[in-house]
Amino acid sequence: MSDLLLPSTFGSVVLNRTERGNPAEGIEYKSDNSLDYKSLLPAQCVVKLAYAPINPSDINVLEGTYIRRPPALPATAGMEGSGVIAFLPENSNTECVDQYGSKLTVGDHVVGSPWNWGSWAEYAIVETNHLRIIPKSIDLKTGAMMCVNPPTAYGLLESAKEGDWVIQNAANSGMGQAIIQIAKARGIRTVNIVRREGLEQDLLDIGADIVVVYSGDNDFIEAAENVKEQTGGAKIRLAINAVCGRSGELLAKCLAPGGVHLTYGVMSQRPMTVSGGQLLFKDITYKGWHLGKFQAQKEKFKDMWTWLIDTVDKGKVTTSVIDTIYNLNQAKEAVKHAHSSNRTGKVLFRCDKTLS
Amino acid sequence: MSDLLLPSTFGSVVLNRTERGNPAEGIEYKSDNSLDYKSLLPAQCVVKLAYAPINPSDINVLEGTYIRRPPALPATAGMEGSGVIAFLPENSNTECVDQYGSKLTVGDHVVGSPWNWGSWAEYAIVETNHLRIIPKSIDLKTGAMMCVNPPTAYGLLESAKEGDWVIQNAANSGMGQAIIQIAKARGIRTVNIVRREGLEQDLLDIGADIVVVYSGDNDFIEAAENVKEQTGGAKIRLAINAVCGRSGELLAKCLAPGGVHLTYGVMSQRPMTVSGGQLLFKDITYKGWHLGKFQAQKEKFKDMWTWLIDTVDKGKVTTSVIDTIYNLNQAKEAVKHAHSSNRTGKVLFRCDKTLS
C-alpha cells in the first residue's frame, strides 16, 4: 500500500460554534493538514469519502439545537456518508474488521455509523469498528444516506408486525418516505398524514396505503373520521410522530386502545395536549424515540443492518431522492439550500471531486 | 353445616342505573331474597359480609363515569369488602380453595377480589377463587380496605427499587397515604405534593420523606425548585399522578431524564401539556395505570398479596383511617357523605349489624 495515494492536505467543512445561531454561519470550508496517517492506531483506517447528505439533524447541530453536540471544537461537520477504504495500518490485519466483523481491504466501499466522524470532508481517520462494508452493487450516493433515515424508520416500526396498521405525520419528509418504504417491504400498512394536497400520488407510488391531508388547524375531527373510513375502522396500534402539536394529537386520536405514540421530532415546535382519558381509558403510552436507543440494542441493530443492505441492494427500498449535489467548498450555499423549503429531495455533498 | 344459619332474605344496596347522574340517586337499599344457597355450584360459597368501604371508584360507578360497568342491572354495588365464610357446598371439598389454593372452611375470614361481587350487602354468593383468606389477627375493618388501595399503591411503585425517589400528587388522599406507607415499608423515598398547607405533619407521621405544597396555579417553578432543594437534586425516576392538569405537569418537570410518568387518576379533570422536549430530550414515558393490568400478572400479584398480608399483620402498613361507619340501610346518606369533601377518612358500611 503506497502512501502516495494520500494527500498531505484536504478540504473539510468545520463547525466552530455550539451556541445557537444561523446554521450556514456556523461553518467554514477549510484546508486541513491534520491527516497524520503514519500514526494511525491499529484499529483505525483512512476513508476517502464519496458523498455525505445534509440531514435535518445536521442542520440542528449547526444551529445549536440538537440533542447532541460535537465532543470538542473545531469539529468536522456531517453525521453520515459513504466512502472507500484508502489506507489501513500495516501489520494489523487482525484488527482491521468493520463493526460486524468483516475483514476490511483497501478499496472496500463503506458507510459510517453516525456520531463517530465528520463526514463533510475529503478524508477522515475512522475507527474501523465504526464502519460497515456495503456491496459495490449499491451506489455510493445511495449508501451515503443509509445510516440515519432507514435505520430510524426501521427502529420506529420495530414493534409493528406484518399486516398491522401504523399512522405517521410529516409523511412526505425524507424520514416519512423511508417509513413508507420500509413498512411496505415488511408488510406493514401505513396511514400517512400530510399538510397539503397534491402529495398523495407520490406517496402512493412508493407504497403508502392511505394518505390523509390535515393542515394542523381546523379539520381535526374530519381528518380522524377520514382515517377511520379509509382504513375500514382498522385498529391502529402504533403512531409515529415527527410534528407534535395538533398533528401529534391527531395521531393519538386515531390510535386504538392500548396503542403506542412514538415521538421522534417536533416540527411544529408546539407541545401536545394529553388527557387523562387517553392514558387511563384508552391506555395510550407516549414515548420519545431516538436512533441512539436502537443502536444500543446491538443484536437487533445488526439484524436490521443485514436486512437493510439486502433490501436496498434488491431495490425494494430506495434512499431519498436527491435534489442537488454540492462540492464541499460550496458548504454555506449547500446548507442554506438544505435549510430552505425550496427543495424536493436531499441536498448531498460530493466529497470526492472526481465523482459525478 | 346447618342451613339455619343463613337467612331467607337479606339487605343489599342495589344499583339500577348506568347513565350519568348523582351517585346517591343511583342506588336503593333493598331486601333481597335471591340467596338460593341450595343451588350453589361446587366452586361457590356464601360469604357473610362484615365491612365494605365506599371508594372513589365506587362513587364513579354510581355516577356512571367509571372505566367499568356492572355486567347487568340491577347489580349489588360495592367493589371490595371483608367477611366470613358462612356456607360451603357439601361434597366438594376439593374445589373449596381460595384464589391462592388455600382450603376454605366455614368461619374463615376472607376478603374479596374487586369486580367480582357486590360487597354492599349482608350476604353474597361468591366464586371461591375470587376470595383470599386473611389471618384472624387482621381486623375485619382493616381487611375490608385491603383489596383496592394497597395493591394499587404497590403496583404503581412496582418499578421502584429500595433507595429510589418517587414523586406523587394528591398525597393526602387514601391512595396517596397507601403509597407513602407501602413505599416506606419497601425502603422507597417519597416526594409528596399536596394542594394546601397544614397536611405536612400527618403525612410525615405515616412515613412521607418530603411534602411540598402546590396549589395547581401560579407557583409551578417555585414548587419544582422546592422539590429539587429538599431532595438535594436527587434523580426521581417515577412519578405517580392522580390529578393531571398543571399538577401532573409538575411531576413531569421534577422527573429525571428517562423517568416514567404514571397516571392513575384525573382529579383536576384537566388534560396535561406534553412537550416534544420532554419526550425526546428528557426521554419521559407517559402511561396510564389501572389495577386490572397488575392483577392480570398473576404471579406478581400473588407475591404482592403474600407481602401485603404479612406487612399489614405486622402493623407496618395500615389501611385508611375511618371517618364514619354506616349501616347498609343508610346507603344514600353514606354515599353523600363519602362524596363530600367534609370528611377526614374512609366511609365504611357495617354489613353485619351484629358488629360494632
What do these coordinates show?
Two copies of one chain form a homodimer. By secondary structure, the first copy, chain A, is an alpha/beta fold. Chain A has two domains: 3-146 and 318-350, Quinone Oxidoreductase, Chain A, domain 1, CATH 3.90.180.10; 149-293, NAD(P)-binding Rossmann-like Domain (Rossmann fold), CATH 3.40.50. Helix content of chain A is 26%, strand content 24%. Chain A contains eleven helices and 17 strands. Chain A has helices at 56-62, 140-144, 149-156, 174-185, 200-205, 220-230, 245-254, 276-280, 291-295, 298-313, 331-339; strands at 10-15, 27-32, 44-54, 75-76, 82-87, 109-112, 123-127, 131-133, 165-168, 189-194, 210-213, 236-241, 260-263, 272-274, 285-288, 322-327, 346-350. In chain A, the strands form three sheets. In chain A, strands 3, 5, 6, 7, 8, 16 and 17 form a seven-stranded mixed β-sheet that branches. Chain A has a six-stranded parallel β-sheet with strand order 11-10-9-12-13-15, sandwiched between helices. In chain A, strands 2-1-4 form a three-stranded antiparallel β-sheet, with no helix packed on it. In chain A, strand 9, helix 4 (174-185) and strand 10 form a beta-alpha-beta unit. The radius of gyration of chain A is 21 Å and the shape is globular. Chain A binds chain B through residues 67, 244, 248, 263-266, 269, 271-290, and chain B through 67, 244, 248, 263-266, 269, 271-290. Strand 14 (272-274) of chain A pairs antiparallel with strand 14 (272-274) of chain B, so a sheet runs across the interface.
